[in-house]
Design brief:
Rossmann fold, 5-stranded parallel sheet, 8-stranded mixed sheet
């Protein structure tokens, strides 16, 4: 019997759980012990997946659960380890039906075959988590099709961020709300970073980036030369729109001998590891959407501020990323919701076009403006042009601090402060 597994399991049952701050996602609401469905919790590294599993254990009863983190270097990375775990639990608890909380299980070969067998042939229930899209519904292995429910996890949204800070927005002076928002804008919503002292935040996020590159890219994809990939990471926060050819040429100008196919592969890895998402232009022509420049957004604002050479001078783009991340969370929970951007042939651009069931729902422009007079004419001009072109009678401008409603050339434009806009967005 594997002594390491035995020690881990016994320590789990004997040690108390850490303090856990609740998130919007509650796994208990998705779990039914009488239904043979595997819950699969997926998301970028360090967004809070582990604590969501621990929160489940706290609510369901820690004695009814077993938690194992397969990134523990002491655990042999072989399929037999999983079978040994079941034998161990039978020895320790007999026929007790347990919920197995398996963290980063994709580290074990053939984990999906094991998961299917346990789900079909035992009374144990599985909740898996991982930082690879291989655990998500869009890429789940064939043997688990129809057996899983995917639960996406993201950095803290604005409402969660406020709860972690233990403040009540309604009672806060406006200046303190702005201070809180600036912190969220720059340092993002990774839970450990949010709770850390400011001086520790850079050290933590640097460690996260190193861990992400080494474990989710270098080890997972056997990448031997990391220089071009690392420079690509530095390029993306400073690149508002891209084509693969443009990124390839930028890397070549930095001295890297990489081809377009390599850049495409790198970008796919970033998306599969939940670090990056992209938005295509709004067009009925699929070919046009594929060939036109894409816009990229990183999972958390702090990564952008770390790599962005002019973050303080580009707060509008940081706001745009907050808005995208909020919309992206919505689309992860509701696949019918899609996000695009709009651009016409003379360069007028609207940041986001939101559709629901292929029907236009919302046009959103984002600008770092604190008053009506700071809103650039080009922002409202592009929004009105898009509204008329798409037969939409209204649009939204998300601002830093200005609020109001205006009718511009027969289009109703609502100006909404970003903290209020973010606060209204809920899980689907």
């Amino acid at each position: 019997m594997n002594q390491v597994l035995q020690d881990l399991v016994k320590n789990w049952w004997s040690n108390p759980l850490p303090s856990i701050k609740p998130r919007d996602v509650d796994l208990v609401s998705y779990f039914d012990p009488n239904v043979k469905k595997i819950l699969s919790v997926v998301g970028f590294r360090r967004v809070g997946k582990t604590f969501t599993l621990l929160d489940f254990a706290q609510k369901y009863g820690k004695d009814n659960c077993v938690y194992v983190n397969f990134e523990d270097e002491r655990i042999p990375k072989k399929t037999e380890t999983l079978s040994e775990l079941i034998d161990l639990l039978t020895e320790l608890r007999g026929n007790q039906h347990l919920v197995l909380l398996m963290d980063e299980i994709q580290e074990i070969p053939d984990w999906s075959l094991w998961a299917r067998r346990i789900n079909e042939t035992t009374q144990h229930r599985l909740i898996l988590s991982g930082s690879s899209s291989k655990l998500s519904s869009r890429e789940i292995p064939t043997e688990l099709r129809g057996q899983t429910i995917t639960i996406p996890m993201f950095p803290l949204n604005w409402n969660e961020f406020v709860r972690f800070k233990e403040v009540n927005l309604e009672s806060l002076p406006h200046a303190q709300v702005s201070t809180l928002l600036r912190e969220y804008l720059q340092f993002g919503g990774l839970p450990e970073v949010v709770l850390a002292q400011e001086g520790m935040k850079p050290l933590i996020v640097t460690d996260y980036l190193s861990s992400f590159v080494n474990r989710d890219i270098v080890e997972r994809y056997k990448l031997r030369k990391t220089e071009a990939f690392t420079d690509l990471l530095r390029l993306l926060p400073n690149t508002k729109s891209y084509t693969y050819s443009k990124l390839t040429n930028s890397l070549k100008s930095m001295g890297h001998s990489v081809g377009k196919a390599t850049v495409i592969r790198y970008m796919n890895w970033l998306e599969m590891s939940f670090f990056l998402s992209h938005v295509e232009v709004f067009s009925a022509n699929v070919k046009n959407r594929i060939q036109t420049m894409k816009k990229s957004y990183i999972v958390d604002n702090y990564f952008s501020s770390q790599y962005n050479s002019s973050f303080s001078a580009n707060l509008g783009h940081a706001m745009e990323q907050l808005v995208f991340n909020s919309l992206h969370i919505q689309s992860a929970w509701d696949p019918r919701l899609e996000i695009f951007y709009w651009k016409d042939y003379v360069g007028n651009e609207v940041d986001f076009v939101v559709t629901q069931n292929k029907t236009l729902e919302e046009l959103i422009q984002v600008t770092f403006a604190s008053s009506k007079f700071e809103v650039q004419e080009r922002e409202t001009k592009a929004l009105v042009k898009a509204a008329k072109a798409l037969n939409k009678p209204s649009g939204t401008v998300v601002t830093w601090d200005y609020e109001g409603v205006e009718t511009i050339d027969s289009v109703e434009v609502a100006f909404t402060p970003v903290w209020k806009w973010l606060g209204k967005k809920k899980l689907a």
